[in-house]
Amino acid sequence: MNLKDAVSAIKGVGPKKAEALKKLDIDSVEDFLYFYPRSYQDWRQATPVGQLRDGELSLIQGTVKLKIKGGYGKKQTLKLLVSDDSGSAEVVFFNAAYLLNKFEVEQVYFFYGKVSVEYGKVQLRHPEFLKSGQKPAYGILPVYPLTRGISQTDLYKWQHMAQHLLNQLEEPLSQQMLERNKLCSLMYALENIHFPQDRNHLKAAKYRLVFDELLFLQIGLLSVKNRITSEEKGIVFPKEITTEFFVNRLPYSLTEAQARVLEEIEADMETDKVMNRLVQGDVGSGKTVVAEAALYKTVKSGFQGVLMAPTELLAKQHFNGLREEFEGHEVEVGFLSGSMTAKNKRETLERLAEGNIHVLVGTHALIQPTVQFKKLGLVITDEQHRFGVNQRNLLTEKGQNPDVLVMTATPIPRTLAVVLYGDLDISVIDQLPPGRQQIITQAFHKNNRASAYNFVGQQVAEGRQAYVVAPLIEESETLENVISAEELHQQLQKEFKEAKVGLLHGEMRQAEKDVIMEQFYEGTIHILVSTVVIEVGINVPNATVMVIENAERFGLAQLHQLRGRVGRGRHQSYCLLLSKGETEVSKERISTMVSTSDGFAIAEKDLALRGPGEFFGFRQHGLPDLKLADLGRHTKILLQAREEARAILQKDPKLLTEEMAGIRAKTIQLFGENAVLSI
User: Fold this and answer.
1) Nearest to 547, CA basis, from 626, 619, 636, 465
2) Keywords of this protein's UniProt record, alphabetized (predicted)?
């Protein structure tokens, strides 16, 4: 048997078991080795019954003194009185017909489980048990995540079989790397993560495997992003051409945070190092004006700029905003999208190639080969996490090492930003412009929906507008108690007969969406029912209410983004969260939204609630999921792994030497051949 063999090569894994294992992402024998326990049971040392504490997981060794059966049929209960020299505990099993003959009075057994102490009575409910003399050879036992049709015993047995093949594994890291980073071997780590001899062995194994996850993540990212120090020089924009004239003519003053970030951008532009800067700012912090100032400097220095947005609605909004802001500055702004007529597209491309369009705004259409600039100097992408890194690279290739500015309104904890954006320098606009009102956020339970919609009616009667967001487009047979946008649209049309209720969702044609948004912007639609397509949407200052149905089905960051669609005008704005969620996580999300509007605090909380894998959306970035590494807790290891990744790629950028063969193979295995572009 080989590690690369399918799981069916293992004795006892038939077609049904193999199908069930797929749900655990176990397809090959090697996958067993990387299927880590979720917890461990320590069977090395029994605790005297008299020393048991409430809530602790403990192992006891005692004699069954009494056996009491109760109930009938399969639902019978079994109670055992178990004693040792220090005291007695009650061991309880429910639905225990199958266990009635497993225990004999006056025989000694081991029991492992959670202790409950109430009014001095010590109890273990449904513990694991073994007859004395059957204690496992390994004192610390793994506990694996399960799926229907697979038991702990199955996994324990198959894992042991896979362990016999550990010698087939190649060690990807050199001896110097292991010594430099104080790491155990991969073979040692994969043995002790499953069957540790003691806590120290387990700690060393975990450390090595966490380091590996973060190291290969960094190598993959640095390779994909092609951020290894380039020999080629960037554009040096002249110091004497400043943004001062543009900024002074704005109808408002920049906040201190905006001014600081603009200084950082200008300083980057004036060096021969290619700028790669991420500008993070909460909803409404004023990132756009900072980008406009950078475009102004670019154009006045004799170069062209490009701004790519993820949706046509947002691109249009940027286009209109830029035209307005650049009026009187002799800056020609053009627009390009997939829905334009062939004639308009051709004319735009001609003017761009001749240099008569100074700033081009658009969607993914900008990366097409037909888009040619005369002299591209600055690339700006808005809401970066929606674009693949490769798309950004396709844009930058249209110029001679242009500067790159990435803007995101999704606050990301700094640790994650460092990982996700690789070598980008990070600027944070952490201040809202003066006068911007706090949005009042309130939570409504499902039984109290009527009062939320009464409030919507009041606001509409006063001439305001409202968004109503649903998690689904149409009714779902599989999801109970989840309302769809189409159902909601019909309900609200009946409820608000005097108002015009519109519907917007992702499956509509672009032209339809544009018409609806235009009508909402102009005020002819009073209530807009939508799916999350408006998460990144147009700026409607008269919209003062954001209602989110089934708020428990949205992530915290997403809820915060949706809330940011209102509060853009002079009127007080509100966010009403309608929730049917009963879980602790959903309650905590809603309570966080009600208690704070700080996007960075919300991002940290989101990371804590969802874990890095889901928060980070690794899969949508084409990145491997992290199984053991936690970006919140393992910051030190992350920075250490990052330094090692940099050193590896500086020494051998293409990973072609024999020493790097294992690293190259592992990186390609995790990221795929196509993703590792620069290798």
Assistant:
1) 465
2) ATP-binding, DNA damage, DNA recombination, DNA repair, DNA-binding, Helicase, Hydrolase, Isomerase, Nucleotide-binding
Portion of the chain with pLDDT greater than 70, in percent: 87
Dist CA 542 CA 200 (whole Å): 61
Residues 388, 406: Cα–Cα separation, whole Å: 12
User: Do the first three CATH levels of 243-429 and 440-596 match, i.e. the same topology?
Assistant: yes
Residue 271 has phi, psi (to 5 degrees) of -105, 170
**Which residues have CB under 8 Å from 234's CB, separation 6+?**
271, 272, 273, 274, 275, 401, 402, 403
Closest-CA residue to 109 (of 86, 127, 87): 127
Helix H or strand E encompassing 590: helix 584-595
Describe the strand order of the beta sheet including 333-336 as a list of residue ranges: 333-336, 359-362, 304-308, 376-382, 403-408, 276-281, 425-429
Pick from 522, 298, 544: nearest CA to 399:
298
**Would the pLDDT of 343 be above 70?**
yes
Query: DSSP secondary-structure letter at 446?
Result: G
The count of C-alpha atoms lying within 13 angstroms of the C-alpha of 331, restricted to the half-sphere facing its C-beta, is: 29
79 and 90 Cβ atoms separated by less than 8 Å = yes
Residue 318's nearest CA partner among 343, 295, 342 is: 295
Supply the pLDDT for residue 384.
53
**Worst-scoring range by mean pLDDT, 151-165, 181-195, 311-325, 528-542?**
528-542
**626 closest CA partner among 22, 147, 210:** 210
Contact 609, 584 (CB under 8 A): no
Question: How far apart are alpha carbons 59 and 136 in whole angstroms?
Answer: 13
202-250 pLDDT, tens digit each: 999 999 999 999 999 888 777 755 543 455 688 999 999 999 999 999 9
451-485 tens-digit pLDDT: 999 999 999 999 999 999 988 766 554 455 677 88
- The fold for domain 243-429 equals Rossmann fold (3.40.50)
* Topology (CATH level 3) of domain 440-596: Rossmann fold (3.40.50)
Gap between the terminal Cα atoms of the chain = 32
Fold of the domain built from segment(s) 1-39+145-169: DNA polymerase; domain 1 (1.10.150)
The three-state (H, E, C) secondary structure of 312-357, written as one string: HHHHHHHHHHHHHHCCCCCCCEEEECCCCCHHHHHHHHHHHHHCCC
Q: How far is CA 325 from CA 22, 262, 295, 417, in A?
A: 55, 17, 11, 30
**CATH architecture group of domain 44-136:** Beta Barrel (2.40)
Say if residue 414's pLDDT is above 70: no
90 strand-pairing partners: 81, 123
Q: Specify the residue for token string 């102004």.
A: 296
CA-to-CA distance for 513 and 530, rounded, in angstroms? 11
Q: What is the pLDDT of residue 322?
A: 95
Mean of per-residue pLDDT scores for the chain: 86
Residue entry with tokens 């007969």: 497
Tokens of 524: 């002819």
Dist CA 431 CA 434 (whole Å): 9
What is the pTM for the complete model shown? 0.62
Residue 561 pLDDT > 70: yes
Strand partners, 80: 67, 91
Burial 427-466 (b: 16+ CB within 10 A, else e): bbbbbbbeeeeebebebbeeeebeebbebbeebbeeebbb
pLDDT of residue 239: 95
| pLDDT at residue 621, as a whole number | 47
